[in-house]
Amino acid sequence: MGFIFSKSMNENMKNQQEFMLMNARLQLERQLMLQNEMRERQMAMQIAWSREFLKYFGTFFGIAAISLTAGAIRQKKPAFFVPIVPLSFIFAYQYDLGYGTFLQRMKGEAEDILETEKNKLQLPKGMITFESLEKARKEQSKFFIDK
Predict the structure, then answer these.
(1) Residue 4 binned pLDDT confidence (cut-offs 50, 70, 90)
(2) Cα gap 71→78, rounded to integer Å
(3) Burial class (CB in 10 A: 0-12, 13-18, 19+), 20
(4) What is d(CA 26, CA 36) in angstroms, rounded to the nearest whole number?
(5) Is the separation of the CB atoms in 81 and 69 below 8 Å?
(6) 125: alpha, beta or left, given left = phi > 0 and alpha = psi -120 to 50?
(7) 20 to 30 A Cα–Cα from 24, which one of 54, 89, 98, 127?
């Protein structure tokens, strides 16, 4: 009688462990999907911001380029062309960020860093552990108790 009861308990416990494992896996998958969705939305906002900024900066750059060119011709001073150079670099950067391949190149560089330069990604004093957090928490609470 005890053997049958024990066998049934073991089977129930095994089923419960499998259910808990499946539930934990499902929860982790949902968290990963949520984090990825949030990352994608943030990236979309960054790209949209760059495109919107490009519209305003492009208008400013166009007006400045025309005005500086007209001033250089009218005043016969080629120094008026000098501000166009840094402004054109900013314009090219914003265009590349909003419509070009900047993000793909950045992603490729990040993947290369992750593969070949992992030592540059190490946290100071290593990974945070439960023990280090507890130690810091206890020290902080002792600080507040002493006051």
Answers:
(1) low
(2) 9
(3) exposed
(4) 15
(5) yes
(6) left
(7) 127
Q: Given this model, what pLDDT does residue 13 score?
A: 87
Nearest-10 Cα torsion for 34, 36, 39, 44: -100
Residues ≥6 apart with Cβ < 8 Å to 68: 80, 81, 83, 84
**DSSP label at residue 126:** S
Largest CA distance in the chain: 109
Query: Of the candidates 61, 35, 45, which has an alpha carbon nearest to the alpha carbon of residue 97?
Result: 45
Query: What's the pTM value of the predicted model, to 2 decimals?
Result: 0.67
Whole-angstrom distance, CA of residue 45 vs CA of residue 47: 5
Query: What is the number of alpha carbons within 13 Å of residue 113 lying toward its C-beta?
Result: 9
Q: pLDDT of 45-70, one tens digit each?
A: 999 999 999 999 999 999 999 999 99
Which tokens go with 7? 């066998």
Confidence check: pLDDT of 147 > 70: no
Half-sphere exposure of 75 (CA within 13 A, CB side): 11
